[in-house]
Write a structure and sequence with these properties.
The protein has a single domain, classed as Ribonuclease Z/Hydroxyacylglutathione hydrolase-like (Metallo-beta-lactamase, Chain A), CATH 3.60.15. Helix content is about 25%, strand content about 20%. The protein has seven helices and 14 strands. The strands form three sheets. Strands 1-2-3-6-7-8 form a six-stranded mixed β-sheet, with helices on one face. A six-stranded mixed β-sheet has the order 9-10-11-12-13-14. Helix 1 packs parallel to helix 2 and helix 4 packs across helix 6. The termini are far apart.
Length: about 290
């Protein structure tokens, strides 16, 4: 049985979100939702989540899971907004515990963060499976970009997060805490071992001016044409290239608010005694 897949694009962060559903039962999952955020004003914007909610309500879908491929550093998750409006369980890979453990002391989060992943309703281990409607989803660990990165495989569709991008953009950076270029190479080889009829669904696209935005591509295209790892690039060459590229990259514009929200499963920081919530900026640290 093939899933019905609807993508949503958030221009500010270049992020794709997905609603994946079983048309017979109306059961659905949401992958990598986005909450808009202005660094200038500190205001959140539910517009990207509202678009998903409108689609789900129009199609009369029942959202069972709200999934994260990893704790994103370039956009805030709308997982909690969606759960409050649509129901469903928020889930991520079990590696989120390591991400929480790393960032909790940097942002001095104290007791406001568990560090055991309990902010999420469920944590998936490698090769865990679950069903929604008549569809089965397998969770595949694909670390390297981050140590909590996972891929969700539904039928012949693989939702890969930031592991790979379009073939002309290559692969994910590996200089975040827990990142490792060699581990990413191994994860991508595991993706490349999936059946040939697999379609890769991306979390981002940053197209050059001479092509249109794309959210998906065939596994064959990736294996043959990815500029970083296609056509049999060996592990040592990939690691050398990736580490050299990463050394010159700046931090994503929304990394500071994104991490603080996303390691909380999309919850905003708790309000202080003046009933205002705050994003912390660690000085001279990141």
């Amino acid at each position: 049985m093939k899933p019905d897949i609807q993508h949503f694009h958030h221009d500010q962060s270049g992020t794709f979100s997905y609603v994946v559903s079983d048309t017979d039962s109306g059961s659905a999952i949401v992958i990598d939702s986005v909450l808009g955020f202005s660094v200038v004003s500190g205001r959140t914007d539910s517009g990207p989540a509202d678009a998903i909610i409108s689609f789900v309500e129009q199609k009369k879908l029942n959202v069972e899971w709200i999934l994260e491929t990893h704790a994103h550093a370039d956009h805030l998750s709308a997982a909690t907004v969606l759960k409050d409006r649509l129901g469903g369980k928020i889930a991520a890979g079990v590696g989120i515990r390591e991400v929480q453990a790393h960032f909790a002391p940097i942002f001095n989060l104290g007791d406001s963060l568990s560090r055991d992943g309990s902010e999420f309703d469920h944590l998936f281990a490698n090769n865990d499976e679950f069903e929604f409607g008549g569809l089965r989803c397998r969770v595949m660990n694909t670390p390297g970009h981050t140590n909590d990165s996972v891929t969700y495989i539904v039928g012949n569709a693989a939702f890969v997060g930031d592991t790979v991008f379009m073939t002309d953009f290559g692969t994910a950076r590996c200089d975040f805490p827990g990142g490792d270029a060699g581990v990413l190479y191994d994860s991508i080889q595991a993706l490349f071992a999936l059946p040939d009829d697999t379609t890769i669904y991306l979390c981002h696209d940053y197209p050059p001016t001479d092509r249109e935005l794309r959210h998906s591509m065939s596994l064959k295209e990736q294996k043959e044409n990815n500029i970083h790892i296609g056509r049999g690039v060996d592990r040592e060459s990939f690691v050398t290239m990736r580490e050299a590229r990463d050394a010159g990259l700046g931090l994503p514009a929304l990394v500071i608010p994104s991490i603080q929200v996303n390691i909380r499963a999309g919850r905003l920081p708790p309000a202080e005694d003046n009933e205002i919530a705050y994003i912390k900026i660690p000085l001279d640290t990141l």
